[in-house]
Write a structure and sequence with these properties.
Radius of gyration: 28 Å
Structural class: alpha+beta
Largest sheet: 7 strands, mixed
Oligomer: single chain
Shape: elongated
């Protein structure tokens, strides 16, 4: 495939059997072809014949190429994406043009990048399945880490065994260093959420404070299905129990989301009430 793309000579597959034979011929009509057969005793493929040379005259860059697939492009850009997963698709389009001479469309390059991310980090389902193991490992090497997983209340069958599996709904975690540092920070928390833009939608919730030198200190994190009354009440309850404590009255700074306002107004036994103030950045953005 790499040779075909680099020299602008597309081929087509005329016979493909993973256990028997594989044959390709020149798509532009000349007599070039390659035949390969699977040798069982070698447990490998052997090229049995090659009809040379390419007699077709088209060596100029074509507008598209059948072998310039998303998976092929993914292998070409694997090193770039692995070293910088946040590289933009527009940058990759230019990089691929330099590699192959083809101006590939945005959607194909996006699929190529997703293919690389799956090869490097695993697919989306596997990533979410690893969350309990990752949090357990963090707790093992960083004692005092607190985390909890909220189940959806429904089950789905396991793809291979068919056994019922719980569906994750929300995740919360906070680190002991952050909780300890909060004793020496200002009595306030900044609360917000940002949307997850991957295949599995949701929001990442954060609670941040400010130290005496004016530096931001992240306190707690949560993954939820979205910004709603139930998810914000769940997040605030865990933050108040695991981070804020019982000693000080805390000021909460946030935007005007109704779920946050309702969660702040909730009274919890043994804990001081929360006071809420508007985030001026959000307020100015809304006015603008």
């Amino acid at each position: 495939m790499d040779h075909a793309v680099r020299h602008h000579r597309p081929f087509k597959v005329t016979y493909s059997d993973a256990k028997v034979r594989y044959t390709i011929v020149c798509k532009q009509g000349c007599g070039w072809s390659v035949n390969a057969r699977h040798e069982k005793w070698m447990k490998a493929w052997k090229i049995t014949s090659v009809h040379q040379p390419h007699t077709c005259a088209s060596t100029e860059t074509m507008h598209c190429h059948p072998q310039n697939t998303a998976k092929y492009l993914g292998r070409r850009i694997a090193g770039i994406v692995a070293s910088d997963p946040d590289v933009t698709v527009k940058v990759l389009v230019q990089t691929i043009f330099g590699y192959t001479g083809y101006r590939v469309n945005y959607s194909k390059v996006w699929r190529a990048k997703q293919h690389v991310l799956e090869l490097v980090f695993g697919d989306w389902k596997e990533a979410y399945n690893l969350i309990p193991r990752i949090l357990n490992a963090i707790t093992h090497y960083n004692p005092g880490t607190k985390w909890t997983i909220c189940r959806d209340g429904r089950t789905i069958p396991h793809p291979t065994t068919g056994d019922p599996m719980w569906v994750m709904k929300r995740v919360f975690w906070c680190f002991p260093q952050c909780v300890k540092s909060y004793e020496y920070c200002h009595p306030l928390i900044l609360v917000d959420a940002t949307f997850l833009t991957g295949k599995c939608k949701g929001v990442l919730m954060t609670a941040t404070t400010v130290d005496p030198e004016g530096q931001l200190v992240p306190m707690a994190f949560g993954l939820a299905e979205g910004e709603n009354n139930e998810s914000w009440e769940w997040f605030f309850a865990l933050v108040r129990h695991n981070v804020l404590g019982r000693d000080r009255k805390i000021c909460v700074i946030s935007d005007r989301h109704r779920g946050i306002l309702k969660a702040v107004s909730q009274k919890m036994e043994g804990l001081p009430p929360l006071e809420h103030q508007w985030c001026m950045r959000h307020f100015a953005a809304n006015m603008w």
